[in-house]
Amino acid sequence: MPWKGEKDPYKIWLSEIILQQTRVEQGRSYYENFIQNYPTISQLAKAKDEKVFKLWEGLGYYNRCKNLLFTARYIAKELNGVFPGNYEDILTLKGVGPYTAAAIASFAFNLPHAVVDGNVFRVLSRVFAIDTAIDSTAGKSEFSILADEVLDRKEPGIYNQAIMDFGATVCKPFAPLCNHCPLQKICKAYLEGKVNYLPVKEKVLQKKNRWFYYFLFQHDGKILIHQRLMKDIWENLFEFYLAESNEHLHWNEASVKEWLYEQLGIEKAEIVHISPQFAQQLTHQNVKGQFIKVILPAIPTTLEHHEWLSLQQIRQLAFPKFINQYLETGALQASLF
DNA sequence: AATCCGGGGCG
DNA sequence: CGCCCAGGATT
């Protein structure tokens, strides 16, 4: 990893935020782009929200990006640009929880705080054959205490890196390399034949189905754009005019015109195109939908206080992948539609 | 304590 | 298709 052996708390913090629930190979290029654009925390603090979100586009969990900016500005202004140097103060930073605080404290300042991430849960649950659910409050507490007990207090940074590397490459979720494992003789799960049953999780997550029908309203060379600011998926990202449904709707020119009239009072509209179905799987919901291009000769009163942007302005904005899938088909050319 | 937040990779 | 990923915030 490019940040291995790194001692700059800014770079460690940035990489750890990027790597929350994110594979190293997925986050690497994002990390490099951020460091190239913002080599120091004060430069990140001065950045415009829109540019930072554009850099984060596609990485997911967009509140990480919001908190990243907030914390950069907090450190730049309130702490004179000096990154906090102890676990308790690091933990107070927005977007920084127990894992990230321990990672920064141990990697940057060699302080004795044990990281407990998905790798550590897995390694400890197997080596000690603990079947307490890792997603329960009791489990989090039990594994944190155990992780602290087995931490190497002389080299906490190296130890933390090592146990996570070990979990990622040897003690893997599926098909772990028990045959070559140096802990074979002391691993309780291996000795008891329980490796494939650990760690234990108790919660099963439910998936919802949602149908997103996006109207690309064009008027006078501009398109209606909306920023998602509600507590929902894709917070702070941009989108077109959204009609959401909890069921599959079948659109044709007549049903679109009827919908436009009944919902928005639009009488004159040219239905240019109705896209095929698009879909995206999220961790906790399935999003399906279509995109409908509409040219409006006049802006209806119901759409007056929305933002209308040119293609050039739209290209600067960060969109969810669901929309980018559609845009990548070449749906928005220079001549619009 | 329960629920929510993305997107990618892998078997 | 289900699970997991160098987790955290909110309610």
Strand-helix topology:
Elements: H1 9-18, H2 24-37, H3 41-45, H4 49-56, H5 63-78, H6 87-91, H7 98-109, H8 118-127, H9 137-150, H10 156-169, H11 188-192, E1 208-219, E2 222-227, E3 238-239, E4 241-245, H12 253-264, E5 270-274, E6 278-281, E7 285-295, E8 307-309, H13 311-314, H14 321-327
Parallel strand pairs: 1-7
Antiparallel strand pairs: 1-2, 1-4, 2-3, 2-8, 5-7, 6-7
Helix pairs in contact: 1-2, 1-7, 7-10, 8-10
This protein binds a DNA duplex (11 and 11 nucleotides) through residues 1, 15-17, 19-27, 58-64, 67, 94-100, 103, 115, 117-120, 136-137, 160-161, 164-165, 167-168, 173-175, 201, 203, 205, 231-235, 280-284, 320-321.
Question: What is the CATH top level name of the largest domain?
Answer: Mainly Alpha
Q: Let me know the largest β-sheet.
A: 8 strands, mixed
Number of domains: 2
Structural class: alpha+beta
Q: Whole-number radius of gyration?
A: 25 Å
Which consecutive residue ranges, at least 5 long each, have pLDDT under 50? none
Order of helices and strands: HHHHHHHHHHHEEEEHEEEEHH
Report mean pLDDT, rounded to a whole number.
95
Q: If helices are DSSP runs of H or I spanning 4 or more residues, what is the number of helices?
A: 14
Work out the strand percent.
5-15%
Q: CATH superfamily assignment of the largest domain?
A: Hypothetical protein, domain 2
Protein name: A/G-specific DNA-adenine glycosylase
